[in-house]
């Protein structure tokens, strides 16, 4: 699986910033090992603000994705679907098939289809519905079909019904925490405006760069803390063995989708070069 030119990772999130917060660590890890990363946002993010209008927000959030792309060497594609309105349509599915075939990922990461946000659910559905058709030449005939099946992984979440997230692989991402915080920092409209406004803590947002990076770092630590459960710890300890830390403060975990290539935990560890 590990090719000379490195792993090709494609992350398909619903909003600009979903990919960063869920996969920033593995993205940096793969890039450092000579691989390539493509982030796709299935919507333009133009509903994520309490003051701005859709048009100006769409433009601002696009520029925020450009910052991530330029600073980290990540390819970034934003699909022009309105935030909150994403539908699992034939048009969106075919666009996604074209994007996936053009990038030729080894691994695709997306949302699970039971999630609080309609855009997250529909993004997961779009990827699932595209999965088999990636290899069907008569579908989207202008982009050559894949001759292999990519591995499809789901991002970690805390939703339990009808089925909780199953951590097939857990990756310690503490060493990438600063870089991940920098990725979130690029999404100024979200981490220093919209999300604190939703959480009623707009008055606590630091004004200076150092304070803001620390704010993003803390957000990531809280995220890992909230997602932690005995199942995640068990998988982590199994994978890292003697190298497992007593406390895992920052991690990314993924569940294998049945709709992608079959892959064992050992093979996943090989792909991500763990521990
Ligand atoms: Zn989102």
Q: What's the end-to-end separation, in Å?
A: 17 Å
H/E series, N to C?
EHEHEHEHEEHHHHEH
Multimeric state of these chains?
Answer: single chain
CATH superfamily membership: LmbE-like
Rg value: 18 Å
**Second-tier CATH architecture:** 3-Layer(aba) Sandwich
Protein described:
The protein has 275 residues and is an alpha/beta fold. The protein has a single domain (8-271), classed as LmbE-like (Rossmann fold, 3-Layer(aba) Sandwich), CATH 3.40.50. 44% of the residues lie in helices and 13% in strands. The protein contains nine helices and seven strands. It has helices at 18-32, 54-72, 90-103, 118-133, 177-186, 188-198, 209-227, 230-240, 265-271, and strands at residues 8-13, 36-41, 75-78, 107-110, 151-155, 169-172, 251-256. A seven-stranded mixed β-sheet has the order 3-2-1-4-5-7-6, sandwiched between helices. Strand 2 (36-41), helix 2 and strand 3 (75-78) form a beta-alpha-beta unit. The longest helix has 19 residues, at 54-72. Bound molecules: zinc ion (ZN). The site of zinc ion has 5 residues, from loops.
